[in-house]
User: Fold this.
Amino acid sequence: MTSLSPGLLLLFGAALLPLLPARPRDGVLLGLPLLTLAAVWAVPDGDALRVAFLGLELVPVRGTGVGRLFATVFALMAFTGALYALRQARLVEQVAAQVYAGGAIGVTFAGDLVTLFVFWELMALGSTLVIWSANTPQAYRASLRYLMVHLFGGVVLMAGIAGHFVETGSVAFTAMQPDSPARWLILVGFLINTGAPPLSSWVPDAYPEASPSGAVFLSAFTTKTAVFALLVGFPGATVLVWVGLWMIFYGIVYALLENDMRRILAYSIVNQVGFMVCGIGIGTAMALNGAAAHAFAHIIYKALLLMSAGAVLHMTGRRKCSELGGLYQSMPLTTLCGIVGALAISSFPFTSGFVSKSMIVQSTVDEHLATIWFLLIAASAGVFLHAGIKFPWFVFFQKDSGLRPPDPPWNMRAAMVLFAFLCIALGIFPQPLYALLPFPVEYEPYTATHLVAQFQLLLFSGLAFFTLLSLMRRTETISLDFDWFYRRFAKEPLLKFTLRGSNSRERFVAAARRRVDGVIARLFRTHGPHGMLADNWPTGSMVLWVAVLLALMLLVSYL
Amino acid sequence: MIDEHLPVLQVVVPLLAAPMCLLLGRGTLAWGLATAVGWFALYVALSLLGSVPAGGEIRYALGGWAAPWGIEYRVDRLDSYVLVIVAAVGALVLTYARASVAREIARHQHAAFYAALLLCLAGLLGIVITGDAFNLFVFLEISSLSSYALISLGRDRRALTASYQYLIMGTLGATFILIGVGLLYMVTGTLNMLDLAERLPALGDNRTVLAAFAFLVVGICLKIALFPLHLWLPNAYAYAPSVVTAFLAGTATKVAIYVLLRFLFTIFGAGFSFSGMLLSALLMVLALLGVLVASTVAIFQNDVKRMLAYSSVAQIGYIVLGISLVSVTGLTAALVHLFNHAVMKAALFLALGAVVYRVGGARLEDMKGLGRAMPLTLAAFVAGGLSLIGVPLTAGFISKWYLVLAALEAGWWPIALLVLIGSLLAVVYVWRVVETAYMQPRPAGAAAVSEAPWHMLLPIWALVVANVWLGIDTDLTVGIAGGVAVELLGGAP
Assistant:
């Protein structure tokens, strides 16, 4: 039992689900992740299973501390997500979500790159089905775009793995450096799944189109599995620092421009994963601990935020900030949970985000990386603005939209309360989490200076937001907060660029689409059913080809 | 007693059963006999595979006339490997055939149909097993003539034209092979393959030998349907009866590739065939063009059968690409894909045959909404499609893996990339079918469709299971192919 990958439990369980009647199915849906959690902790350290395959030495199951950390939070997520989706989601979504979670857990135990790749692709398949099962035309198209990006990522990764094998003769999944084309390809394959530039937009493109519960699952697995892969595969690769910083600011800027509440949260996934990627790039024990801890905490609070957004969507059917507001009156529990999540993502003291993100920031101090430290601190303020205040304010407070939906059904409430509890519990008692981290932790988040600094940061950001609010009331448009930033924070170069970028993006996309259409039309002319290469040829022309080839062969042989 | 005659039984039993099918006259009886013979052939092939030692061979002198005067049957590991492919596809297709043939072919032609199919099987098995170059040509003609007849039995009247074109091209190919063999006979005075292999090196760069080589390579490439000599294939596959398409796709081109390997590596020897890298470069370029062009053409096809036919041309490109790398890994990839492609294409064409059986056509619009109406058939199609793409845990992945490894070993990064691009193109054309079958509703007013009968599903799913099995347990394919590749390149096994 212990020698098989715990991810397989979920995969085989998922295959059983459609065969079961409704009642027992609920039990299996909730029981499987818990069983998996037990299995995760039953895997001993070191190689638990070795298989020789195609002349490769495969290690489908290897117990490691960091793998167990990620597997634990993935199993927790699978349980809470299943609880949240229990009554509302379609069966196909529930099955796909289990496959998806199983793939993610499989990756965390992979001791070699081939096993990793297999589970990686299973995950792509499961997540595509999760998006697709929202059953709307937009979701269908988004799922196709999503699949294309991930298939491309898979091809890049596969090519990298093959090249790496040819160079080193080993497929072991250990720390590498991007020092050859093959390992660069592996790195790029991993980064595509983190939502790194230039393909970041698959995250905000696909996730908000999923069903309320689907988005919760999606927020947890793909990007964090990629963080895990980077953490094990490329710790200390300097390029990751800059990739991570780019993701952080990309997420903030676009989230500030956005009106769709779940798209705001999707952009903020890119932003938060950016912190982790940056930490992995710094590569010290403190930074890697911070990245791992932040991934753990992030899965929980981001799922919580998306659950509260999903609850609103489920009860009101609306997703735009400008159409929502004032929901605190009738959805007090959802509001409370949303606020807890928002505080956690802003690293408010006594929440999980505080104890994890500060480790990444601390590592820049330890290494005397002043520029990066400054950028991370600025970004922390930005996170508070776009996710910490903007999301709860516009959805639950702001103007009164006149909507009075009640809180969502019991299972959704229970799932939210569970994760809200974890957010706070981890914030107050970080030691159990620290004990799970890959390196020994000598870090105390609750020092007086740190608390004061963090409160200062948050208070001034909050102040800034509410200063903006008066401007907001006058015009009631979202674009103003963008305007405001760009005057106030003197980030002109960056923001002007994105402003112009977002205007010209439409034109660029249109031009690109025309070009692609043109290429396809040209291909169709030659390769289409009546194109030269596919049409029915007269027999004489076929024979001509034979003659040409024979002449060529004779010529070649005689030369 | 029987065991020592296995090599000849492999060919003689189907050959003699063919006229018996005609004598039986009734469709069902003929089918029963043909199927029994098909399974017997598979049994013989498997026993031969089991009894051929690695690096050794079984020799059988026909009628007791010792080689090189008499005709000799020779079975080494490569022979028995290809025999198993041909016999296995034959047995499964025959098992499947009854209902499909009853639906697609006029009643009075059933007995003749099974006779022709058995003749074709006997011819293909004969090509593989014989150790005599002229005997090979005879079997080639037996299999070709019967396949022209089989293709012309298609319901669509265009089947006649397709069959006629295949006849012209096939005859041309066979003639080239005959000319090649004749020229070799002229300079060496022998037709026995081993004898030829012994005597040719002494002749060096003899002009006659070079001409024979050119004629043989072009003639065989015609039968392989290597781009741009593939033009006969799409129509032949598209308009032939479903059973015939599945059978030919799984066997005929595979045997032709076997013939190419035999001539290039055993008779002429790798040193002669690939001296100066010119043949290698030619094959590589044509194979890559074939992969890219045929895959792109497949994307735009509306007839799914035709689409799969073009995909076959692309897959043949992969196999020839593996050969053109002239390395152990490259040959292993080619041989593994020989097996895997036979399994996946047979599964796909048989699943498509089940669709034709229920719906009456294989155009894309015929497949609308079938995902719900025929879940098992379409699931099999999807599984075959995944293998075609090369998704891990399917047979197709193993082939692609070795091919990419071989390309990287030779330092050809761009080729590895092109192989992977080919896979992406396969994603697109397989996806078109999946999208139509699963995402679109049955057209309003279309007749209700039910799942294919179990006796059709059984062989289809046997092939699907084989697809997954060969993707996980590679002892049969990679194990044998690896050894054969070393033998072909002249090393110790």
Q: What stands out?
A: Chain B touches chain A through 53 residues (CB under 8 Å). DSSP finds 20 helices and two strands in chain B.
